[in-house]
Design goal:
The chain has about 210 residues and is of the alpha/beta class. Helices cover about 35% and strands about 25% of the residues. The strands form two sheets. Strands 6-5-4-7-8 form a five-stranded mixed sheet, with helices on one face. A three-stranded antiparallel sheet has the order 2-1-3, sandwiched between helices.
């Protein structure tokens, strides 16, 4: 009988300690730069999970680093990619979502006056989450190149300091709707970081750089 192992996932879809590789694998598959390791006992795993990943792994050899970079090139094509654009800060803001495999546009909003790019990125992710829930696709990944927006979605709050101007009331209405949606819906779709340096511009990019 194989000895029980415990798998620590420091960075993945849902960090934690898992008692089977299948369960741990679901947390790291498709997650760029996931950090995980197996341990022989629960006590070791709990100690590791509370600590720093790098304290529990050996320094990678050059070959391992190369393999890691190749792994990050494996884009999940059956996914939804989102992006935003803003002419000025604040300025005319818009956002959209496309099917990653073929660039087919799935939704588009804007332009709306007196917005910011971060707000657009946040609204795009929530729009994608709501769309996939409506379509019965609770496991389809969503790619975004905005760490800020991903953080806001995780917290369920658009942490913007944008001033109300009257002209941007529609944007604040969208923010309110998005925050209310996040408050009552559980996020099941993996929200993944698009690795622009390795993969080029995200498929939903507006192409205005």
């Amino acid at each position: 009988m194989a000895k029980q192992k415990f798998y620590v996932v420091w960075e993945g879809h849902t960090p934690g300690i898992y008692t089977s590789w299948d369960a741990a694998k679901r947390q790291v598959d498709g997650y760029a730069q996931a950090k995980y390791k197996s341990f022989e006992s629960r006590a070791e795993a709990e100690k590791a999970f509370k600590g720093n990943y790098w304290a529990f792994v050996k320094k990678e050899a050059p070959a391992a680093k190369t393999a890691g970079k190749i792994a990050r090139l494996n884009i999940i094509r059956d996914s939804l990619a989102v992006d935003a654009a803003c002419s000025g800060n604040p300025g005319d803001m818009e956002y959209q979502g496309v099917y990653t495999a073929d660039g087919r546009k799935l939704f588009h909003m804007g332009p709306l006056p007196d917005g910011t790019n971060n707000i657009g990125e946040f609204l795009a992710i929530v729009h994608a989450l709501a769309l996939l829930k409506q379509q019965g696709k609770p496991a389809m990944p969503i790619y975004s190149d905005s760490k800020t927006a991903q953080g806001w979605v995780k917290k369920g709050k658009c942490n913007t300091k944008l001033d109300h101007t009257g002209r941007n009331d529609p944007i604040f209405e969208l923010i309110d709707r998005a925050e209310k949606w996040l408050a009552v819906n559980k996020i099941t779709n993996p929200i993944l970081k698009w690795e622009t340096e390795d993969w080029g511009e995200i498929p939903a990019d507006f192409g205005r750089k």
